[in-house]
Predict the 3D structure of the following.
Amino acid sequence: MMQFPKWLLRAGMAAVAALAPTLAWAASTPPLIRDAEIESIIRGYATPIFEAAGIDPASVKLYIVNDDSINAFVAGGMNMFIFTGLLMRTDRPNELIGVMAHETGHISGGHLVRTRDALRAATAESILAYILGIGAAVAAGNSGAGVAVMGAGQTVAQQNLLKYTRTQEKSADHAGLGFLDATGQSAAGLLDVLELLRRNDVLTGAGGNPYLRTHPLTKEREDYIQRFVAQSPNSNATDTPAMMDSFKRMQAKLIGFLKPLEDTLRAYPETDMSFAGRYARSIAYFRLGQLQKASELIEGLIAEEPQNAYLYELKGQMLFENGRTMEAIEPYRQAVALKSDSSLLHLALGQVLVESGDPGFAKPAITELETAVGLEPTLGQAWRLLSVAYDRDGQPAMTALALAELALGRGRSEEARRHAEHAMQGLPTGSPAWLKAEDIVMQADLRSDD
């Protein structure tokens, strides 16, 4: 797998979390983003829709693609991809939710079964490898908090695989609009997004917006959605203040991390004293290495919201990225204490404990990283760090087991088998860890036979 420079901040480019290998921006390919706060916000919007569709929310994996296109798609049955262009260029949560409701209609309708032969497998890793060209990057764990960016291997040129028929689009509309009604939400947001896409194509003469290419908007579809909006009892429903607030924070975070400083200050000038405005500027100044300015803003936000885990996370990242690793431990601990169900926050704390180099932190690091992989087993960065922590703690068999998990996630079957067999030699026969190593050996054998 291609290796990227570890700290994008130090290169003066788009900011990235302290936990992940980062994107080489010379590549003309869309990366994925991992961020605990943004993922939580999006999942909060999507969960009622999934439940209305009769889908277990936990079974749907959400991926954020760092691309300025207004786009979204589903692949492999239960994987939804949402582009940052959609997140940053929509005006309210209802617009984003409308698109997700439509995409959920494709999931519930089983419209992706026909792509099985092309994709070959329904695992998230293989789908990402085929469509986005990033191999097993998700399993390899190039992820972390604070808008961590992962490199991709090719463009989203395989969109023709995702192009739906008119019948499927109509079916997804029917289903998605029904999900919105069932949750008491307006369908006006979906209509607004589709009209925005149509206007952009007309104004730019592009004639090929990615979303409209994969989701052709016929006159019949547009008329149907307009009639639905006109007749639905929920069409005047508005987003709650809490939803609007989380939406503004999400956009501020994305803009602060991904846009140039001048763009951030244009969107959030110094006179903007809203939470979102100060949040965006704190991130932008942090990216530029202006730690004092960034710290003053983040400390002010923490004073206002002392129970906000993501503010402590950002504070920890600021310190860690500026070489103040020992000082970063406490804010990360506070973040984990406030949001203990986040795999990425446990990963963040485990990372700084390992990076401190203090052997006394090996056991606490193991606790955090084991919790991270317990919550998200494919979080390969956690397995890599676990191998380091186990080694420092004098657990060679567990070190080998962690390396086996990491290799299996990266699709390196022979390497996984070798590490797992080594682990089995040092683990009590029949123990949970020994059984896990045995399972990895069997999985490696199956993959080698494919």
Notes: Strands lie at 32-34, 61-65, 72-75, 79-83, 148-150.
